[in-house]
Design a protein that fits this description.
mainly alpha; 152 residues; 9 helices
Length: 152
């Protein structure tokens, strides 16, 4: 949970993330996936921030940043899962987290980076997706189809 929180792109430091992860574990939230599900059920915005303050003991400004990070993660994961159903929910979350860690936070940024890589030669875009998202070549191919569909 600690690594997940620091990887969301906010300003949450390692010590704060560790304290939040410990608080979450005391409340039975022992995985990033469980935290994401609870946040998703609460909803983004005020309800999500309230959940993060209550369950993780975060300060409200930190909870807002984590809420924004979770919203970004959810949007990217939703796109990836829609483009490649074989990823499943957990795989899409992992790939989305990897994209965010790599500085790619939106579908548009992913599409632009993929387009730029495609100009580098046959298969370059797919290789970039495999490396950035940590998916296999078949999943990268399916994601490419989703990116191509967006360009039309």
């Amino acid at each position: 949970v600690s690594e997940f929180l620091t990887g969301l792109g906010g300003h949450l430091g390692a010590a704060e993330a560790q304290a939040a992860a410990s608080a979450a574990a005391r409340r039975g939230i022992k995985s990033a996936a469980r935290l994401h599900v609870l946040w998703h059920e609460a909803g983004a915005g005020a309800a999500g921030v309230r959940l993060l303050v209550e369950q993780l003991g975060l300060a409200e400004h930190d909870a807002r940043e984590v809420d924004e990070g979770l919203a970004t993660l959810s949007a990217m994961a939703e796109f990836l899962r829609g483009a490649c159903s074989s990823l499943g929910a957990a795989g899409a979350r992992r790939a989305a987290a990897a994209a965010i860690a790599g500085g790619v936070t939106t579908e548009g940024k992913l599409r632009r980076r993929w387009t730029r890589e495609e100009r580098g030669g046959a298969g370059a875009g797919q290789r970039m997706l495999v490396q950035l998202l940590g998916v296999d070549e078949d999943d990268a191919e399916a994601i490419e189809e989703g990116l191509r569909a967006q360009q039309r």
